What does this fold into?
Amino acid sequence: MTDRKAQLIVDGIDEPIELPVYSGTEGPDVIDVRALSGKGLFTYDPGFVSTAACESKITYIDGDKGILLHRGYPIEQLAEKSDYLEVCYLLLNGELPTPEQKAKFVDLVMHHTMVHEQITYFFRGFRRDAHPMAIMVACVGALSAFYHDSLDISEPYHREVCAFRLIAKMPTLAAMCYKYSIGQPFMYPRNNLTYADNFLHMMFGTPCEDYRPSPVLARAMDRIFLLHADHEQNASTSTVRLAGSSGANPFACIASGIAALWGPAHGGANEAVLAMLQEIGDESRIPEFVKRAKDPDDSFRLMGFGHRVYHNFDPRATVMKASCDEVLKELGKENEPLLKIAKRLEQIALEDDYFIKRKLYPNVDFYSGIILKAIGIPTNMFTVIFAVSRTIGWISHWSEFHSSPNRIGRPRQLYTGSRQRDYPE
Ligand code: CMC
It folds into this structure.
């Protein structure tokens, strides 16, 4: 890729160690440190702050400039001109589809939406108040027990079928979690609806009554899916890649991604944002919470603020904020108290030295929860919706990993435990 080299001088090693330097199409150069283990050295980078774990062609983020590109296309343009399933095609295949390719892709996804009837029995084993993410981890992992015909991961066609199955069945499982929690019958998918309409139908329709969402709500739902579709090597995607590197089947790998997403520092933040706004309860209490967020002795953080990669506005948050205004207007909820608190909190935090110095801006989750709540989706389903959306990112990265020469992921460590010692006589 390049003739550039870095030289590493290490006390106790006579010769400087030469390491190749690679340039990508965008972003910082990377130093190839693979030769170090042969010299008895490892690099140390907890949290992977300075480590490129793989080469990828799918998504690029410039966190300082607030840029997010999928296969080169800016997220703002995709949010305005494209839709979720088209972005799925783009992420998976590398190029935007022709109208014919898109129609075929949509048709294929929408004809894999049903889950095996036997899966309904899994649900009965859960308490009605189980967290839906717990059910999703279990049910998505369990899909590998149903689709034995597509588990040869060395076969590109099998990998493709798994991708279709996962993209198609995630909304069905997600809606089943909700229906189970409220004691309503599961709604079968309707393949003639759009992806977002079908999800809303399975969530809010009943056998007694159809649910017909307004185009504004369906569009907002599609946008939420689209804006969460991929985000390069985040914790859950890296988890999926690592699980995939052992040769585990894709359903098991995506289940591991769902588990990693669940935490409040990652996908669980959208649920946590809403809980925080509800706890604040009134604009007058915002300074108290901002004070707590700044206190190094208090573990409280402003949820929906900050990002490992973005040190500028999260471009997804900007689109989400506009979508939020649109949805609340459509529903006549412009004066929604939580939105007022959110807007005021954002303003106060953005003017505060603590947040300015640390470049902490609202992230995608700051506004998505308000939209989801307005649509009528309960808070504990927010992270599930993130998981539905992110499935395409996970499966695209998993596919990319398996489409080129690869080896099992195996990080090393700086060992600081006891030296070898003898068991007492
Ligand atoms: N509120 C208050 N202080 C914060 C916050 C926050 N939300 N986020 C970071 N900080 C402070 C942190 O205390 C530290 O201060 P100091 O330098 O004085 O010790 C500094 O900013 C750097 O923080 P960090 O923890 O080293 O940053 P990180 O890159 O390891 O963590 C993060 C990134 C997203 C986990 C973190 O900003 C956070 O916990 N945010 C709240 C949770 C959240 O909204 N997560 C959703 C991320 S976007 C969706 C997704 O992609 O999953």
